[in-house]
Each structure stands twice: as structure tokens, then as C-alpha cells.
């Protein structure tokens, strides 16, 4: 029995503020005041088209021909910039490479950070939950640390 | 054409709907941006020390970040749950297995109320349309009433009172004139075993045959002593005649001990609180009077010497046992008649008068305590003490063995559903206190023995619907009903039972209670007990309980009885038919394997009363093949020129019937016999001594002691030393000395005390044993869950047992090994396989 196997990517798009120079350490988002949120104005479709362009330019028509049938963006959240992308298993390296080489869409610049790759949607969802929990924990620890300094 | 189109449309709609539903279930919710003003921020962030002073981190920001992330977490979780449940589970699959009903997929009424809408939605819409009849079905009045229909189905078999409950959940079979449950339909082998070890498990045993005997105590005692086991304590002993305990013994043909074993029986005397005022005569011959033949004339109530006793036993041998009792009775009455005494003995068949449940397992005490509500008003102090401590004991082993407790209970339906009692240990200790009450006639007194009481209770005073109406009138819903004066009070009896190899307690025994109540109340008590979480056992579970406890189970482990013959023949027929139906490539080739009797154990050949059949070479093709290829057969038996003709010299029936040496004193008898040079003589004298104990004459002079010894079988327990388990009808071989050395070398190499799973022999299992070294067969074998290794119960020839013991003795003397014990070793070969396994053998105390 031939099974079509997939790979699911959990990607987070880390936004780069437009006025920042390329630093050695990534910038702190908290350095901005809350009145100016970093919005990427992204959409599932926008990501798909950006990814397509990236594959076409880096891997050519051959690359897109291999990948195009199975590629799809399953989930994207504008608030957390977390995205779940599905590709076929034999072509996932192409998409991974194209994703890494993607550095922005039109005006918005970002760094894609692939958090997890797996064969089922369920494990990607579990990884997303775990990732969110570590982020929350990190923020909390940071807030505690700051609080202690100022108290 | 038109209909096809009609059908096509709803199914297309249905498919679309299902797809949409599935897609909905799979999408993950996204938090809309407009609701939150702040952004979650990125994950890659680390504090840099030099910037901390300039920027103020807001605590509010962290919370908003956390909120956005947590929304995502929840969305992911719910998406996972809905996705899996939307595609794979139906409404009835959400229910646990024991609440699922057949036909729930197309009949939503079989599903609990809360899931009914869901089930209805999941149904095929075409089917739903046909089921939802707007017009009611007519002709319901013309139908025959249910009772008539059910009675028609019971012409050739009888149903138990709990039949319908069992029929919905268990595989049923016709056995011994009843329709009985064999095993539950759901997978229940391990859960039932766990329930008998740690929980509680119930078996409806109302099919057991009951016989009532009435008469003077001494006469009844004499009647029983003629036919019961001579090694056991007599059923007329003082501890039993007071009615405080039951007597578990075996019944033989009258005057034939030890040759005509029939079955195990249980004897219960009606309690006589004012004991022992009557003189207990040792012999019936001292009575004076004329003996009358048994007539159903009730003995005068005024006589204070009339006792009643009940005997219950397996239904497959009812006719035999009843006729034995009749013969014994007439024999005793004749003897009394010769003296001139007037003696009246009444023998009655009371099958169907009582319901019997067997509840085994440690939790059975709490279950019974919670399910039954005894009438405390007239209860004795002893009983109150007993009832108070019943809920606290953690195993029935702490109750004196065979103890009978009789008491009236209120209608069980009043306090439905029941709550299990909780064990309350005394403070500061882990062990529950012992029961604190000794068996006594007063404790065992119960009005269930009276026929008129039972007759009154055959029909309950209030039907279930009346009781439900009463319950609905309760002011506070859910409170149990208080028993009224008109409510029934049902006399019941609890008897402590245990499944164990001998009278002494051991760790493997399974203890429980036998619960006896008048007929007509089976369903009421059954429902009460089932709602406590007790599992229900069928015949297979009952057999497994006996196997795990290491005891013989009637009829499958009693090789010398006629009931066993019937059972074995029926099984052989079924298996042979199945084997013949199977194509040769898919079934075991018994000829090639050298299994000379794969269907039924040939005890006569094993004991030497019959020549070994040369069937292995009667098949012409096989013989020619072998000869033509010039190969030597691996079978070492002598090739006789005239096969399969009965030798006229050797009889079909041995001079002494094949008999089973069993009883409480078996191990001491065997050790005594093994020291003697001529064990046959000693065996005969032992048998005569036991017979004299019961005032039977010694066995007739025609019985030669060699024949008696040669016809004896003995039950053994076989434990495999290496991994693997043996199944039923496996062959047991004795091992020649030289080979045994090799086996033991392999065994000790594995370690001092090897775990069976780790022991492996490489070449020894392939050695083909000589067919004349078969010493017996295994009657019940398998993997024992409680021991974690293969275990079996079988029977071997007594002479061969002595040979094994001599082998062990000589080994003991010449042993080179430090750890030399006197265990007896044998080889066991599955009838379908060719590999032999080393096994240890112990004599089974039964």
C-alpha cells in the first residue's frame, strides 16, 4: 500500500523592526513601547505566496514542481506569528531551505524560526503547546527578574 | 432509476455534511487581532543588561503576551480533541464496554438518554426514516404472551432464572439439561482472574442438583458412610451434624470404595440448636425395629431425632448419585429391618427450590455487607457481631472454613442501588481483626429449610413496579425505602467456600461465599449484586479459578469417573470433527508426530491393560513411502505383523476397574508405599483398613493386589521448568537416567533458582521419546496467571510414580550436585508438537 507521508513544520516568524540594524543578538521586543506593536500584517495566503516565490527563486521550476502539489499553510496566528505548514515528506528539505532563505514579505521583515518538524499534525500541535508554555514561562521569569530589580 | 436518483441525493448531502463537519473539527481557532491591543511578542528574547534601565517592562504586557499564547494553547488542545472524536468515535463508543449494547448503531434507544441525540444524528438518514414510524404497529394484542414463548423454548433444556441477563452478555451453551453461560462476550479472561484474586466475581450456580434426606440421625449417618470417602472425616461427625459447617466430600458407589468414584458432593445438615441431646450411636445395628422402604410419608415432627440434610453436587451425575443414595438407603433399612427397628427415611429431589450464587474474591465480604440488609430485630447477638465484622475482613480466609450463617433479609429491591461497605481497619494496624464468631448451630439456623416458607416466597409480595412507585413517592428522592410489615422477609444462608487443593489453607486458594436463597428471588439478588461492580463468571471462569488454585475441577480433572468419560468423549468428537474438516496442510499430522491418541487419553494403554495400537503403520501410503526410501522410522516400537486386531488374550476391561487414588491422606499413603518392597500388598491392606473404618467388608478375595496397584491413577501437578506451557491432553513421559543427567545439567547451568522464562535447552527437547515411556496425560494445562509459568494438572499411573521416586532416590544417592533435591522430573510433550519439555511433578492433594 502506498502511503503519502507528510512533514509538518511549526514555524514562528520573529519580526525585525524596520529601523534596527543587524545586531549580533536579536533585539528585545520589550524595548519598544506598547503603543507601537510589531505587526507583520501577514496572512496564510501571503505566507504561501511568499514561500512560493522563495522556492521558485532558490530552487527553480523543478523545485516548485516537486513541492507545489503538497504544500499548504494550515494555520497562522497573527497575534503570536505561529504558523503550521504541511509538505510531502520527500520534498520537505526543499521547503525548509526555502523557508530559511525567506527574510520578509514586501515591507515586513522577519526571521522564520522552525520550532518543530514531525510527521503528524497531532505532534505539531503538542509541540506548539509546549513552545507556548516555555515562552510564557520565560516571560514570567523575566518579569520577575525585572520586578526584583525595581522593587 | 427514479429511486436511484432519490437515494443518491440524500447520501451526497450526507457526505458533504460529514466532510464539512470533519473540516470544522480540524481547524484551529485563531484569536482575532482586534480583541487584543497588544501583540504576543516573539519568543526569541533575552535580556541585555545595559538596556534595562532605559526601558520599563510593563507587567501588563507580560500578561497580554501570556494571554495570547494561552489562547493558542487552548485552541490547539480543543482542535486535537474534536478532530479525533469527530472522525472516529460514535456515540456508543464513548460508553465503557460494559454499557454498550448490541444494535446501538441503528437503534438510538439502546444508548443512554444523554447520548441519544448524538446517536440519532449519526445514524444513516435513510435508516432513520424507516425507523421513525409515524403509525404504530398493529396486532400487538394478538401476539402470544412472553411467558408462553419462553416456555416453548425450554422444552429440551431448562433456563435459570437469570437466563435473560446472561443471554444478553454471555455465550450460552446447552449443558446437562440447562442452558448455561460459558464465558462473557467481551474479553474477560484477565479481568475475571484479577477479580477472583483482588475483587469479587459472581457465578450463578442454581443448576446444581439438590437432594434432601430426612430421617433419624444415626440412619442418615450410616447411609452416608457407606458411600462417602473413607479418608475424609465422616459426614456424620459431630462438627457437621450440629449444622454449623458444611461437609465437602466425595461420593462413591456404595460398598465400592475406592473403586467407583462418582463426584464431589457437599453435605449440609439442618441446624439443631439443642445439640447434642440425642445419643450418637456408632452403628446402625443397635437400632431395633422394622425397616420400611422409602415412602414419601413425612416423618413425625414430634420425634426429636429426625434430622434433615441437603446434599448438592454437579448436575451431570444427578441420576447416578440419586440412585446410589436410594441403594444405600435400602441397604441400611434392610439391615435395620433385620434387627427389627422401625426406621423412616425420606429422599427427595429438590432441584429448583433454591437459588445458589457463588461469590469469590476478597471484596465479596464488602459486597455482601453492602448489598444485603438483614432483619436486625430478631437477630441473635452472635449474628450482630458477625455482621458488624463482615464488612471489615479483607479475605474470606479469616472466616472459619465451611461456616454456615443463616439469617432473614429484607426485600433487596428496597435498597436499590446498593453501596459497597468500606473496610475499616482498627487504628494503628494494617491487618483486619478476625471474625470473632465461631460457627454454631444457632448462627446457622434459618427458615429456608421449611418447605412452606419457600412456597410462600415463590411469588414476591410486591412487584418491582409497585416498589418503584413507592420509591417515587419518597419525599426526598434517592433515600432507600424502609421495609414495611407486609414486605417479604427472605431467609438466606451464607456458606464460606474455598477453591483449594486440600483442607489446609495455602496461598493459592480462592475464597468466597456461597449464597443460598429460595427460588424466585434470583433476579432481585442478582441485580443487587451486579450493581456493586462484581464481575460475572461463566463456566470457563469457574474452571480457571480451580486451575489457578491448583485443584482438580470436576468433571475435567477426574479421569476415572463416568462423568469424565462423557465429557472427554464429547470433546474428542468435536475435536476430531474439526480436525477432519481442516485441510492437511493446516492441521497437525498426528501420525508423523507419533501421538498415538490425540483425542482422548488412553488410560488403559498407559496402565498396561491394553496393547499399544500400531495405527502408526497401518496407513498403507506411509508405510510404503518409508520402506521405499529406505529410511528407518523414528518410532522405536516393535512392528507387529498383524496390526489393529484386538488381542484376545488381553481383555478390553481390566479385571479391576481403573480407579483414582485420591484423598486427604494420599501423600502419607504414597510415602508409606514407596518404602515397601511390594507396594501392592501394602496398598490393598491400606484400602481394607479404610474400608473397615466405615464398616465395609474388605475387598473381595478375587481382587489381586497387583491388579489393584496396576489400575491406580494418581492426580499430579506438573510445573514446567523452562519457558512454555503445555495444553490439554499433552503427554507425560518418564525420562531415562542418562538423559535425565543431561537435562539437569542444563537446568543447573541456568542458575541456582532459574526463572522458567530464562531456561533454554537446545538439543534435548528434540529427542524422540519411546512410546512405552508414556506415564500419563495432562487433563488441564495452560499458562497460569497467578504463578507466571506454565502449569498443568494431570494424572499418571501409580506404578510409574513409584518408579520416578526410585529414580529420584538413586539420583539423590549418586548426586554430584550440591543442591540435590528429591523432585520428580518428567518430560511433557504437547500432542501437536514434537518438542519435549522438562517438568516437575507433585502429587496433588485433593
From TrEMBL, chain A:
Gene Ontology terms: cellular component: multimeric ribonuclease P complex; nucleolus; ribonuclease MRP complex
Q: Which reaction does it catalyse?
A: Endonucleolytic cleavage of RNA, removing 5'-extranucleotides from tRNA precursor
Q: To which protein family does this belong? A: Belongs to the eukaryotic/archaeal RNase P protein component 2 family.
What function is annotated for this protein? Component of ribonuclease P, a protein complex that generates mature tRNA molecules by cleaving their 5'-ends.
Keywords assigned: Nucleus, tRNA processing
The GO molecular function terms of this record are: ribonuclease P activity; ribonuclease P RNA binding
Protein name, as recorded: Ribonuclease P/MRP protein subunit POP5
Subcellular location, principal: nucleus
Q: Which Gene3D superfamilies match?
A: Ribonuclease P, Pop5 subunit
Give the stretches traversing the membrane.
none
What does the UniProt entry say about where the protein is found?
Nucleus
- State its Enzyme Commission number(s): 3.1.26.5
UniProtKB/TrEMBL annotation, chain B:
Domain (Pop1 N-terminal) ranges: 65-130, 144-215
| Gene Ontology BP terms | tRNA 5'-leader removal
Protein name, please?
A: POP1-domain-containing protein
What InterPro entries does this protein map onto? Pop1, POP1_C, Pop1_N, POPLD_dom
- Give the subcellular location: Nucleus
- Residue ranges annotated as compositionally biased, kind Polar residues, are 29-51
The POPLD domain, residue ranges:
512-603
The organism's lineage is: Eukaryota, Fungi, Dikarya, Basidiomycota, Agaricomycotina
Q: Which GO terms describe its cellular component?
A: nucleolar ribonuclease P complex; ribonuclease MRP complex
User: Which coarse location class applies to the principal site listed for this UniProt protein?
Assistant: nucleus
Q: Residues in domain POP1 C-terminal?
A: 773-844
Annotated region Disordered: the residues are: 1-53, 275-301
**What UniProt keywords are attached to this protein's entry?**
Nucleus, tRNA processing
Amino acid at each position: 500500500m502506498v502511503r503519502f507521508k507528510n512533514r509538518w513544520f511549526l514555524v514562528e516568524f520573529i519580526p525585525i523592526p524596520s529601523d534596527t540594524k543587524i545586531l549580533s543578538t536579536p533585539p528585545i521586543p520589550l524595548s519598544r513601547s506598547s503603543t507601537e506593536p510589531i505587526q507583520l500584517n501577514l496572512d496564510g495566503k501571503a505566507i504561501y505566496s511568499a514561500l512560493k516565490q522563495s522556492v521558485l527563486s532558490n530552487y527553480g521550476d523543478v523545485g516548485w514542481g516537486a513541492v507545489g502539489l503538497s504544500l499548504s499553510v494550515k494555520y497562522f496566528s497573527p497575534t503570536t506569528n505561529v504558523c503550521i505548514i504541511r509538505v510531502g515528506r520527500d520534498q520537505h528539505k526543499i521547503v525548509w531551505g526555502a523557508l530559511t532563505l525567506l527574510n520578509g514579505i514586501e515591507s515586513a521583515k522577519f526571521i522564520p524560526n522552525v520550532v518543530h518538524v514531525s510527521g503528524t499534525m497531532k505532534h505539531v500541535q503538542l509541540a506548539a503547546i509546549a513552545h507556548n508554555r516555555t515562552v510564557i514561562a520565560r516571560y514570567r521569569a523575566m518579569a520577575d527578574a525585572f520586578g526584583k530589580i525595581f522593587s | 432509476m427514479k429511486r436511484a436518483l432519490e437515494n443518491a441525493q440524500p447520501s451526497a448531502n450526507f457526505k458533504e455534511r460529514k466532510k464539512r463537519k470533519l473540516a470544522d473539527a480540524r481547524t484551529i481557532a485563531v484569536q482575532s487581532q482586534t480583541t487584543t491591543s497588544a501583540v504576543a511578542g516573539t519568543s526569541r528574547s533575552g535580556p541585555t543588561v545595559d538596556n534595562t534601565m532605559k526601558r520599563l517592562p510593563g507587567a501588563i504586557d507580560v500578561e497580554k503576551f501570556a494571554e495570547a499564547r494561552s489562547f493558542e494553547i487552548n485552541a490547539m488542545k480543543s482542535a486535537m480533541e474534536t478532530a479525533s472524536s469527530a472522525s472516529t468515535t460514535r456515540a456508543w463508543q464513548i460508553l465503557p464496554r460494559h454499557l454498550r449494547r448490541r444494535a446501538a448503531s441503528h437503534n438510538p434507544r439502546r444508548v443512554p438518554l444523554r447520548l441519544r441525540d448524538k446517536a440519532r444524528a449519526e445514524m444513516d438518514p435513510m435508516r432513520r426514516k424507516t425507523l421513525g414510524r409515524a403509525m404504530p404497529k398493529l396486532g400487538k394484542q394478538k401476539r402470544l404472551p412472553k411467558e408462553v414463548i419462553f416456555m416453548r423454548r425450554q422444552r429440551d433444556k431448562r433456563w435459570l432464572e437469570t437466563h435473560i441477563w446472561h443471554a444478553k452478555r454471555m455465550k450460552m451453551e446447552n449443558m446437562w439439561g440447562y442452558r448455561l453461560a460459558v464465558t462473557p462476550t467481551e474479553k474477560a479472561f484477565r479481568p475475571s482472574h484479577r477479580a477472583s484474586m483482588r475483587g469479587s466475581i459472581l457465578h450463578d450456580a442454581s443448576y446444581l442438583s439438590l437432594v434432601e434426606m430426612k430421617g433419624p440421625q444415626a440412619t442418615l449417618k450410616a447411609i452416608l458412610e457407606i458411600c462417602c470417602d473413607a479418608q475424609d472425616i465422616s459426614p456424620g461427625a459431630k462438627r457437621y451434624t450440629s449444622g454449623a459447617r458444611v461437609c465437602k466430600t466425595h461420593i462413591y458407589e456404595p460398598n465400592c470404595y475406592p473403586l467407583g468414584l462418582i463426584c464431589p458432593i457437599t453435605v449440609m445438615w439442618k441446624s439443631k440448636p439443642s445439640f447434642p441431646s440425642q445419643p450418637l450411636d456408632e452403628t446402625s445395628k443397635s437400632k431395633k425395629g422394622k425397616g420400611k422402604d422409602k415412602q414419601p410419608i413425612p416423618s413425625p415432627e414430634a420425634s426429636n431425632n429426625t434430622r434433615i440434610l441437603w446434599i448438592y453436587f454437579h448436575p451431570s451425575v444427578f441420576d447416578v448419585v440419586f440412585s446410589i443414595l436410594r441403594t444405600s438407603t435400602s441397604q441400611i433399612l434392610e439391615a435395620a429391618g433385620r434387627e427389627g427397628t422401625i426406621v423412616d427415611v425420606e429422599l427427595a429431589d429438590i432441584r429448583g427450590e433454591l437459588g445458589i450464587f457463588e461469590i469469590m474474591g476478597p471484596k465479596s465480604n464488602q459486597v455482601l455487607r453492602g448489598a444485603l440488609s438483614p432483619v436486625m430485630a430478631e437477630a441473635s447477638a452472635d449474628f450482630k457481631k458477625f455482621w458488624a465484622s463482615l464488612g471489615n475482613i479483607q479475605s474470606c480466609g479469616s472466616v472459619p472454613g465451611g461456616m454456615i450463617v443463616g439469617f432473614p433479609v429484607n426485600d433487596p429491591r428496597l435498597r436499590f442501588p446498593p453501596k459497597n461497605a468500606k473496610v475499616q481497619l482498627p487504628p494503628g494496624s494494617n491487618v483486619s481483626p478476625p471474625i470473632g464468631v465461631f460457627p454454631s448451630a444457632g448462627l446457622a439456623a434459618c427458615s429456608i429449610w421449611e418447605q412452606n416458607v419457600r412456597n410462600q416466597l415463590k411469588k414476591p409480595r410486591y412487584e418491582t413496579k409497585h416498589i418503584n412507585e413507592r420509591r417515587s413517592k419518597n419525599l426526598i428522592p434517592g433515600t432507600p425505602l424502609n421495609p414495611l410489615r407486609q414486605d417479604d422477609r427472605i431467609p438466606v444462608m451464607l456458606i464460606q467456600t474455598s477453591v483449594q487443593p486440600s483442607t489446609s489453607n495455602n496461598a493459592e486458594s480462592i475464597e468466597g461465599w456461597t449464597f443460598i436463597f429460595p427460588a424466585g428471588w434470583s433476579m432481585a439478588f442478582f441485580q443487587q449484586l451486579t450493581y456493586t461492580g462484581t464481575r460475572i463468571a461463566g463456566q470457563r471462569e469457574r474452571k480457571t479459578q480451580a486451575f489457578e488454585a491448583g485443584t482438580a475441577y470436576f468433571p475435567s480433572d477426574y479421569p476415572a469417573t463416568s462423568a469424565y468419560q462423557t465429557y472427554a468423549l464429547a470433546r474428542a468428537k468435536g475435536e476430531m470433527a474439526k480436525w477432519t474438516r481442516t485441510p492437511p496442510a493446516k492441521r497437525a499430522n498426528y501420525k508423523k508426530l507419533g501421538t498415538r491418541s490425540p483425542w482422548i487419553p488412553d488410560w488403559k494403554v498407559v496402565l498396561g491393560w491394553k496393547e499399544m495400537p500400531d495405527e502408526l503403520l497401518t496407513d498403507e501410503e506411509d508405510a510404503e513411502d518409508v520402506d521405499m526410501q529406505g529410511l528407518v522410522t523414528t518410532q522405536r516400537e516393535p512392528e507387529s505383523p498383524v496390526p489393529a486386531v484386538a488381542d484376545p488374550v488381553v481383555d478390553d476391561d481390566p479385571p479391576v476397574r481403573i480407579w483414582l487414588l485420591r484423598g486427604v491422606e494420599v501423600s502419607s499413603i504414597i510415602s508409606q508405599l514407596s518404602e515397601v518392597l511390594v507396594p501392592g500388598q501394602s496398598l490393598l491392606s491400606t484400602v481394607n483398613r479404610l474400608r473397615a473404618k466405615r464398616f465395609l467388608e474388605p475387598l473381595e478375595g478375587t481382587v489381586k493386589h497387583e491388579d489393584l496397584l496396576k489400575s491406580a491413577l494418581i492426580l499430579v501437578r506438573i510445573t514446567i521448568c523452562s519457558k512454555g506451557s503445555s495444553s490439554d491432553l499433552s503427554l507425560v513421559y518418564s525420562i531415562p537416567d542418562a538423559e535425565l543427567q543431561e537435562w539437569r545439567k542444563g537446568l543447573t547451568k541456568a542458575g541456582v533458582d532459574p526463572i522458567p522464562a530464562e531456561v533454554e535447552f537446545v538439543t534435548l527437547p528434540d529427542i524422540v521419546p519411546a512410546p512405552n515411556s508414556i506415564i500419563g496425560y495432562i487433563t488441564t494445562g495452560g499458562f497460569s496467571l497467578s504463578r507466571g509459568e506454565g502449569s498443568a494438572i494431570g494424572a499418571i499411573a501409580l506404578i510409574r510414580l513409584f518408579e520416578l521416586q526410585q529414580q529420584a532416590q538413586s539420583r539423590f544417592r549418586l548426586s554430584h550436585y550440591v543442591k540435590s533435591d528429591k523432585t520428580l522430573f518428567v518430560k511433557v510433550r504437547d500432542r501437536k508438537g514434537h518438542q519435549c519439555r522438562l517438568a516437575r511433578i507433585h502429587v496433588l492433594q485433593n
